[in-house]
Structure formats: C-alpha cells, structure tokens
Design brief:
Radius of gyration: 42 Å
Number of strands: 9
Number of domains: 2
CATH superfamily of the largest domain: Ribonuclease H-like superfamily/Ribonuclease H
Strand content: 15-25%
CATH topology of the largest domain: Nucleotidyltransferase, domain 5
Structural class: alpha/beta
CATH class of the largest domain: Alpha Beta
Order of helices and strands: HHEEEHEHHEHHHHEEEHE
Shape: elongated
Oligomer: single chain
C-alpha cells in the first residue's frame, strides 16, 4: 500500500517538474563536502588574520649575501696547443663571468706531439683557474680527441696520453663543477694565436719575458702618421709629385727614405701637371689633398656634378 502511494507521488512530481530544464549529474565524493560543512559549522566569530609584520626590536641582525662571488658563476677556459717544425707552444684564455679575458701562453722546451701539447695547454689553464679559486668552470678546446677522452667517451690508448688524462682528472677535483666542450678551431682563435706565437718565438733562458700588451686600433696607422707628420700646407703626395716631375728628393732625405720614395713613385703618372696613381686594373686615380676632397664631397652631397665626375677617380 505504501509503495503504491509512493509511486503515485513520484509520478505527480515528474509531471510537475517536466516543464523545467533539469540536468541530473552524479554526486561527487562526500569527503570534500563533509570537511567543508564541518569547518563552516565551527566558524569563529572573533577570527583575526595572520600578521606577517615583525617588529624591528625582534631582529638581532641582518646579513647580506654576496651575489657577485666568483664561486657562484661559471668561468670559461679556452685552450689550444701548437706543435710544428719551429717549436711547441701552448695558449689558454680564462674568461670571467663579466667577460674579462686573461690570456696565458707558454713555450714548451721539449719534444712533444700535437696531442701532448693540447693536454699541456689544458693543464696550464686548469692550474691557473685553481690558483684563482674558481669553482665552476667550462673548458673548451678544438681537439676532439682530448675533449672526448676527458669526457670519458673515447678510450685513451696512447701510453703518452694516459698520464696526461689522469693528471687532468686529478686537477678537476678542485672544482665543484667542470664541463668539457668541443668547439671548432675558428671559434678558438685567441688561444690558437697564443699557442702559435709561443711555438714560433725563440726565448733566451737568461732573459725575462715582459707581459704582452694588447690594444685595438680603430683608425688606420698611416692616416695618423700623415696627420702627425705634416709641418706645412703641402699635400700628402708632394714628395712623390716632386720626384715624378723632376727626379728630386726631399731635403735631408736618408738613403732608406730615397729608396722608399723611388718604390712608391713607380705606381704614379703625371699628366698635365696632375698626379695620378695607377690602380690594379690600370684605372687612373687622381691624387687630391684634404681641401679638394672636402670640396668634392660637398658638391656631390649637393648634387653638383663637376670635373670630378668626368671619368677619373679620386685617390
């Protein structure tokens, strides 16, 4: 009887709810809702948020960490060895995290193969890095044999190289992290140049070697000499013009200067009082001084085509 009454009520509810768009979904896990209901039923009326502010009097000291310590950053070592008929030399370049370069080079006064020279260069660079107390080092070399032997990917069968590899592996224990990477020779130019220079130079055992000073020139050296050497308003080609025209030398010219002037004058011709220089393709280049160059450039900039555009080139 009760089940018949329940079925009638269910049918009546179904008819009443049919006009609504109702979607039935399965109930999720009860655990999450039970915890939420439990916390909601025990809400605190006097709740106070957590305070993350600390009073100054509670601080005993403040210590600042040094961020620029060289142990925290990776240094780079490029090495190369050169062994030829002239001699044997090694070169290495340490590059700091800031991009500062520290070159080192050494002349090997004993016979060795090229692979031995490569190992000697690597050992020299690692020892310098250890002296500077560097802890993280990236080692780059253009010798595939040495790099892959140190990485353990190639076997070391040459008896002369086994001891070298063992020494390098002992040295790198001083670092916290060391990686060996191979790079092409054209990307290792500075270390290669240092090694080649050391192999070719002849060193006297009883003489001290001065540090090699390196600089960058942004202007051609001959331009600087011309400007610094001018003592009057005569053009730069005055001495050449005088010799081509009259076979005369400057006053107080030395024997070496006369020989140089004769060699220079071979490539110059005089036509109508104007000095020309013959190019490699026999094109005549007109010689002009600084005043004429400035005037011609101003005319070209203003769109004026004068005699400078009539078939000859300026020098």
């Amino acid at each position: 009887m009760e089940s018949t009454a329940l079925s009638e009520r269910m049918a009546r509810w179904q008819i009443l709810l049919s006009e609504f768009d109702i979607v039935y979904v399965s109930q999720k896990a009860v655990k999450g809702s039970a915890i939420a209901d439990f916390l909601a039923s025990r809400a605190l009326e006097d709740y106070e948020p957590l305070s993350f502010d600390f009073l100054n009097e509670d601080l005993m000291c403040i210590a600042a960490m040094e961020e620029n310590s060289q142990e925290c950053y990776s240094w780079r070592l490029n090495f190369d060895g050169a062994s030829n008929a002239v001699g044997n030399g090694i070169g290495a370049v340490l590059v700091s995290p800031n991009g500062d370069h520290y070159p080192f080079t050494c002349k090997l006064d004993f016979d060795c193969t090229n692979n031995m020279a490569e190992y000697e260069a690597c050992i020299m660079g690692n020892r310098v890095a250890i002296e500077r107390r560097i802890k993280v080092l990236e080692v780059y070399g253009d010798s595939a044999l040495v790099i892959y032997q140190l990485k353990g990917e190639w076997e070391t069968r040459d008896p002369k190289l086994i001891s070298y590899r063992k020494l390098v592996l002992e040295l790198i224990k001083e670092f916290e992290n060391v990686t060996f990477c191979y790079l092409p020779r054209d990307e290792n130019q500075m270390a290669d140049a240092l090694a080649t220079l050391a192999s070719m130079i002849k060193v006297n055992r009883h003489e001290d070697m001065k540090p090699i000073q390196m600089s960058i020139h942004e202007d051609p050296a001959h331009c600087c000499n011309i400007e610094e050497g001018k003592i009057d308003d005569s053009p730069w080609y005055q001495d050449i013009l005088r010799y081509v025209k009259n076979r005369e030398y400057p006053g107080q010219a030395t024997k070496n200067e006369k020989r140089t002037l004769r060699r220079l004058a071979i490539d110059y011709d005089l036509d109508g009082g104007i000095l020309y220089k013959r190019g490699k393709d026999q094109v005549l280049l007109r010689c002009v001084d600084a005043v004429e160059v400035k005037k011609i450039l101003e005319e070209v900039y203003e769109g004026i085509c004068g005699t400078h555009a009539s078939g000859f080139t300026m020098a």
